Amino acid sequence: MSKRVPSKGKAHRFGGDWTGLKLDVLGKYLAAYTTALKNQPFRKIYIDAFAGTGYRVARNVGEVGPSLVPELPEEGGRLLDGSARIALKTEPRFDRYIFIERDAKRCAELEALGKEFPDRAAAIDVRQGDANEVVRELCRGSWQSQRAVLFLDPYGMNVEWSTIEAIAATKAIDLWLLFPLGIGVNRLLTRSGERPAGWNERLDTIFGTPEWRSEFYKVEETKDLFGEVETKVIKAGLDAIGRYFNKRLASIFAGVAPEPIVLLNSSNNPLYLFCFAVANERGKVPALRIAEHLIKLR
């Protein structure tokens, strides 16, 4: 991986050791994907919905520092390839690269990648805007002669279920999705079951249904020694939450990897699920075979 510093601006900073793991899986899948489709007539597209700058920063060995968000490193460390640069380095190459980013400065860094990869410069399409809106717009187009891999790596709980539905509806996109299991969803699921209305709405948007309430909370009634009824609210664990989300994916995609990768922080606490889903019915068997092989290697 490159340690070269971009000519302008700062590298986009996110993740820890688990970041390298997910990008390693993504990179190997991209290479297998373009190899499998190299003799097919489809136009091959890579879509990165939260592209950042194309770089990521790894901590120096032994480096420890405070952070407002414990899972994210502070300034310092060496520059490594982010998902955008990994995609641009993939051989056989993609026919088109769509990088989506809200921040204007990061978009400029993505545009600058054309100078580093001149043979791919004309194929780079940087779009500034909300990832959900841009992805849904892309999905509304014709996909009959196109196939794509889409990497959804949100900064938090930013991916809306309507966006995931639009991806599945293309019948043409393979999706790698980072689901905020412990770092997001679980934090909104209070033990008592009582939450601000805004939290409920956020979870409805992520899951695409209010049914998660009955899935994640059970009410148990027991009688004490005096015959009085005691009510206890039981909250689902992380495993149940993850299974439910994967089941939701399976309800709209042609195929879904049954065992997503669980990404852990340095204390071995689950942060994310790295999920895989394929929208194309005819292509699901080889796609799942490749994805499940890479997942089992972790």
Please summarize what this structure is.
The protein is an alpha/beta fold. It is 36% helix and 23% strand. A hairpin with a 5-residue loop joins β11 and β12.
Account of the 3D structure:
By secondary structure, this protein is of the alpha/beta class. It is built from ten helices and twelve strands. The protein has helices spanning 17-36, 83-89, 104-116, 131-139, 161-169, 181-188, 197-207, 212-216, 238-250, 284-296; strands at residues 43-48, 55-58, 78-81, 96-101, 124-128, 146-152, 173-179, 217-223, 229-235, 255-256, 261-264, 270-278. The strands form three sheets. Strands 1, 4, 5, 6, 7, 10, 11 and 12 form an eight-stranded mixed beta sheet that branches. A hairpin with a 5-residue loop joins strand 8 (217-223) and strand 9. The longest helix has 20 residues, at 17-36.
Straight-line N-to-C gap: 19 Å
Strand content: 15-25%
SS-based class: alpha/beta
Q: What is the alpha-carbon Rg in Å?
A: 21 Å
The helix count comes to 10
**Order of helices and strands, N to C?**
HEEEHEHEHEHEHHHEEHEEEH
Low-confidence stretches: 1-15, 59-77
Shape: elongated
Q: Kindly state the mean pLDDT as a whole number? A: 86
Helix content percent band: 25-40%
**Number of DSSP strand runs:** 12
Biggest beta-sheet profile: 8 strands, mixed
Please describe the structure with a list of short key phrases separated by commas or semicolons.
10 helices, single chain, two-stranded antiparallel ribbon, alpha/beta, 298 residues
